[in-house]
Specification:
By secondary structure, the chain is mainly α. Helices cover 57% and strands 6% of the residues. The protein has a domain of 51 residues. The longest helix has 26 residues. The mean pLDDT is 81.
Protein backbone atom coordinates (compact mmCIF):
# COMPACT_ATOMS: atom_id res chain seq x y z
CA UNK A 1 0.00 0.00 0.00
CA UNK A 2 2.84 2.36 0.82
CA UNK A 3 4.42 1.65 -2.56
CA UNK A 4 1.21 2.66 -4.31
CA UNK A 5 1.04 5.93 -2.37
CA UNK A 6 4.68 6.68 -3.19
CA UNK A 7 4.04 5.92 -6.87
CA UNK A 8 1.02 8.24 -6.97
CA UNK A 9 2.98 11.02 -5.24
CA UNK A 10 5.87 10.59 -7.68
CA UNK A 11 3.50 10.74 -10.69
CA UNK A 12 1.87 13.89 -9.32
CA UNK A 13 5.32 15.45 -8.91
CA UNK A 14 6.39 14.41 -12.43
CA UNK A 15 3.17 15.71 -14.00
CA UNK A 16 3.52 18.98 -12.10
CA UNK A 17 7.00 19.54 -13.47
CA UNK A 18 5.83 18.47 -16.94
CA UNK A 19 3.01 21.01 -16.95
CA UNK A 20 5.31 23.73 -15.58
CA UNK A 21 7.91 23.03 -18.27
CA UNK A 22 5.29 22.92 -21.04
CA UNK A 23 3.65 26.12 -19.82
CA UNK A 24 7.01 27.91 -19.66
CA UNK A 25 7.79 26.70 -23.19
CA UNK A 26 4.43 27.91 -24.44
CA UNK A 27 5.01 31.34 -22.95
CA UNK A 28 8.36 31.47 -24.79
CA UNK A 29 6.70 30.57 -28.13
CA UNK A 30 7.99 26.99 -28.14
CA UNK A 31 6.23 23.65 -28.56
CA UNK A 32 4.22 22.66 -25.50
CA UNK A 33 4.12 18.88 -25.97
CA UNK A 34 7.83 18.53 -26.72
CA UNK A 35 8.74 20.35 -23.54
CA UNK A 36 6.01 18.51 -21.60
CA UNK A 37 7.75 15.22 -22.43
CA UNK A 38 11.17 16.69 -21.62
CA UNK A 39 9.80 17.94 -18.30
CA UNK A 40 8.38 14.49 -17.57
CA UNK A 41 11.66 12.64 -18.11
CA UNK A 42 13.99 15.40 -16.83
CA UNK A 43 11.87 17.19 -14.22
CA UNK A 44 14.32 19.65 -12.67
CA UNK A 45 16.71 19.93 -15.60
CA UNK A 46 13.88 20.56 -18.10
CA UNK A 47 12.58 23.55 -16.15
CA UNK A 48 16.06 25.04 -15.83
CA UNK A 49 16.79 24.53 -19.55
CA UNK A 50 13.55 26.12 -20.76
CA UNK A 51 13.96 29.08 -18.43
CA UNK A 52 17.48 29.70 -19.77
CA UNK A 53 16.40 29.68 -23.43
CA UNK A 54 15.57 32.99 -25.14
CA UNK A 55 12.10 33.73 -26.41
CA UNK A 56 11.50 32.37 -29.89
CA UNK A 57 10.41 35.07 -32.34
CA UNK A 58 7.34 34.19 -34.35
CA UNK A 59 7.73 34.68 -38.06
CA UNK A 60 5.13 36.93 -39.60
CA UNK A 61 3.70 35.10 -42.55
CA UNK A 62 3.76 37.11 -45.74
CA UNK A 63 0.55 37.07 -47.76
CA UNK A 64 0.67 34.56 -50.57
CA UNK A 65 -1.01 36.88 -53.04
CA UNK A 66 -0.66 40.61 -53.35
CA UNK A 67 -3.77 42.67 -54.09
CA UNK A 68 -4.07 43.75 -57.71
CA UNK A 69 -6.31 46.22 -59.46
CA UNK A 70 -8.54 45.38 -62.39
CA UNK A 71 -6.32 47.47 -64.68
CA UNK A 72 -3.35 45.24 -63.92
CA UNK A 73 -5.40 42.20 -64.87
CA UNK A 74 -7.13 43.45 -68.00
CA UNK A 75 -4.59 45.85 -69.54
CA UNK A 76 -2.48 43.09 -71.09
CA UNK A 77 -5.63 41.44 -72.44
CA UNK A 78 -7.04 44.52 -74.15
CA UNK A 79 -3.81 46.02 -75.46
CA UNK A 80 -2.77 44.18 -78.60
CA UNK A 81 0.76 44.63 -79.88
CA UNK A 82 -0.15 44.37 -83.54
CA UNK A 83 -3.50 44.43 -85.30
CA UNK A 84 -5.17 41.14 -85.96
CA UNK A 85 -6.06 40.10 -89.47
CA UNK A 86 -9.57 38.92 -90.12
CA UNK A 87 -10.52 38.17 -93.70
CA UNK A 88 -7.32 39.85 -94.91
CA UNK A 89 -8.18 43.17 -93.25
CA UNK A 90 -6.34 44.75 -90.39
CA UNK A 91 -8.74 45.18 -87.51
CA UNK A 92 -7.73 46.71 -84.21
CA UNK A 93 -9.86 45.57 -81.29
CA UNK A 94 -10.39 48.20 -78.67
CA UNK A 95 -12.39 47.06 -75.71
CA UNK A 96 -12.18 50.28 -73.74
CA UNK A 97 -14.77 52.95 -73.97
Amino acid sequence: MEVLIEFVMMMILLLTFSVMTGWAALSLNRKFWLWFVIGFFLPFIGVVIILCLPEKVKKIQQPLLKPVSSEEIFDPVFELREPRRINEREIQFLARA
